[in-house]
Amino acid sequence: MGNVANIKRLSFGFILASILVLVACDTPTLKYEGRSTGSGTNPTPLDYHGQDLRHHDFTGEDLRGANLSGANLSGVNLSNFDLTGANLQNANFTSAILYQVNLLHANLTGTTLTFANLNEAQNIDVLSFRRSGDVQNSSMQGVNLRGINLSGRNFNGVNLSGADLSQSNLSYIYLGYANLSEANLSESNLDTARFTRANLSRANLDDADVINAIFDLANLTYADFSDAINVGEHVLRNAYNVHGADFSTVNLSGLNLSGLYLAHVNFRKANLSHANLANSYVGSANFTGANLTGATMPVGWEILASHVGDVESLYSAGNGSPSGMWSDGITLWVADSSAAKIFAYSLTTKARDADKDIDTLAAAGNTHPFGIWSDGSTLWVADSVDSKIYAYNLSTAARIPAQDFSFLDKGNELPYGLWSDGTTMWVSDEASPSLFAYNLATKEREKDRDISTLYSAGNRNSGDIWSDGTTIWVVDEVGKKLFAYTLSNGERNSSKDLPLGEGNFGPRGLWSDQITVWVSDGLESHIFAYSARTHRRTP
Predict the structure, then answer these.
(1) Average pLDDT, stretch 218-225?
(2) Is residue 134 within 8 Å of 107, Cβ to Cβ?
(3) Mean pLDDT along residues 349-367
(4) How far apart (Å, rounded) are the C-alpha atoms in residues 80 and 78?
(5) Following CA atoms 238, 240, 246, 251 in sequence, which dihedral angle do they give, to the nearest 10 degrees?
(6) Which of 24-28, 59-63, 307-311, 494-498 has the lowest mean pLDDT?
(7) What's the CA gap between 267 and 245, in Å, rounded?
(8) At a CB cut-off of 8 Å and minimum separation 6, what does 194 contact?
(9) How far apart are CA 331 and CA 10, in angstroms?
C-alpha cells in the first residue's frame, strides 16, 4: 500500500508540473507600446523606430540589436547600456550621455551625436567605431573622444567641430571632408592620417605627431601646429589654405615649401634652416626668431612680410566709386557701383593687376555691383537694383547662373554687403537694418541665423560686412564706424567696434586679413587701412 501511495503522489506531482509548464508556455510575451521585449537569452529586438524617446525610461530594457533608427534620444542617459548591433541610423543623440556604452557593430550612419559624451565608452577602439557600421556624415560636434583609438576608421564627412580628440590615436584614419574646426587634436598620433579637403580651421594640433599626415586641399586657416612633432613638407604643401596657421617652434628644417601661399603664417622661432620657400607668398608672415640659415626665401620677402597700407590708385584706374571688396590674400578685388566692373589690385604692392579684373558684369545685367564675396572659386556679386546676387568664375570671369541667388527674401530687396563662412551667406540690405542669412549651397533662407539687432544698436545704414568667424562687422556710412556683433547669436559687441578715421567720409566696402582692416570710400575713391589690433590708421 505504501508503494501505491508513493506512486499516486509521484503521478500527481508529474501532472501538476506538466500543467505549470503548459501554463508557462502559454503565458504571452511582455509587451508595451506595441514593442516586444521577448524573453530568454535571445530576446526579440526592441523596435523604437522614429519614436520620441527623450523622456523614456530604459531601465531594465535590453537594447542589443534594437531598432532606434530615426529616433529622438536627445538628452537621454544610456550610460553602461549594451547597444551591440543596434540600428542607430539617423538617430538623434544630441547632448546624450553615452558613458561606457557598448556600440559593437552598431550602425551609426547619419547619427547625430552633437555634444554627446562618449568619454570612456567601453572598448571604443574595438567595439565601437572601428567595427561599427558606417559613420560617414555623422555629426559629433563637441563630442568628448579624448584618448580613444580610432585608428584606421573611415570618418568621411563627419562633423567633429569642437571635439576633444586630444591624446587619441588617429593613425591611418580617413577624415575626408570632415569638419574639425576648433577641434582639440593636441598630443594626438596623426601618423599617415588623411585629412583630404577637411576643415581644420583653428584646430589645436599642439604637440601632435603629424608625420606622413596628408592634408591634401585641407583648410588649415589659423590651425595651431605650435610645437607639433615630425612635421613633413606635405603638411604645408598639400594644404589648400594655411592662412594664419601657427607653426611657431616647429622643426621644418630642409623642407621643400616652394610655391605655397603662406600669408600670415606664424613661423616664430621655427626651424626653417635649409628650407626652400622660393616662389612662396609670405605676406605678413611672422619669421621673428626663426632659424633661416641656408633657407631659400622668395625675392623681396622682407617687403612681402611687412604691411604696406592704403590703396590710393583707384581713381586713376577708373575705379571712382569703390564699394565691396574681397581678397584671397594676394589680389584685392574691388567692386565699382558706377563702372559695373570689379577691379583687381595687388594686396602687397597696391598696384593695379588689370589681368585679374572681372569685366563681364554689364553684359550679365549686373550693372549696380556692391558687396562681393568668394570661396576662392566662385565670386558672388550683390546687385541692389536687380534684388539679386550674381555668380562668376573668379579665375575666368565667366558667368555661373546656376550659382545665382535669384530670389532674395522680402525686406532684402536692396542687397549690399556679402560674407559667408562657407555654409551660410549673410547679406546686408541698404534699406533694412538686418543681416539676412541664406544657405550657400541651396540658396534657401536660414532665418534662425539672421542678425536682427542692427536697428537697436543704431546701425541703421548697413553697408558691407566681414567676419573673422566669431565677430561680424557692419559698415555704417552715416555713423562713420564699423559696428560689431557676435556671429553665432547676433548680439552686439560694442567693445569690438572700429571707429573710422578722418577723411574716411563715405565708407562702403570692407575686408580684412585679421591684421589689417581695409575700408573703401566711395566719396574719396580711396581704400583706408586700419590696424585690426589697435584700430589705428596705418597709411
Answers:
(1) 83
(2) yes
(3) 94
(4) 6
(5) 10
(6) 24-28
(7) 9
(8) 173, 174, 175, 176, 213, 214, 216
(9) 100
Cβ neighbours, 10 Å, residue 426: 26
Residue type, 44: T
Residue 408 has what DSSP assignment?
A: P
pLDDT above 90 covers what percent of the chain?
A: 37
DSSP letters along 219-267, please?
Answer: B-TT-B-TT-BS--HHHHHS-SB-TT-B-TT-B-TT-B-TT-B-TT-B-
Provide the mean pLDDT of the chain.
82
Grid cell digits, residue 357: 579684373
What type of residue is 303? I
Close Cβ partners of 397 (under 8 Å, ≥ 6 residues apart):
357, 358, 359, 360
CB within 8 Å of 83: residues ≥ 6 apart = 63, 64, 66, 101, 102, 103, 104, 106
| Selection from 448, 77, 435 nearest residue 427 by Cα | 435
Task: Give 536's pLDDT tier (boundaries 50, 70, 90).
Answer: low
Give the whole-angstrom CA distance, residue 431 versus residue 391: 23
- Whole-Å CA distances, 111 to 56, 57, 95, 323: 19, 21, 13, 44
Tens digits of per-residue pLDDT, 381-419? 999 888 999 999 999 999 999 999 998 999 999 999 999
Strands 378-383 and 388-393: antiparallel
More confident site: 418 or 152: 418
Cross-strand bridge partners of residue 436: 427
CA–CA separation, 474 and 480 (whole Å): 11
- Lowest-pLDDT range of 316-330, 385-399, 522-536: 522-536
Parallel, antiparallel or unpaired: strands 322-327 and 35-36: unpaired
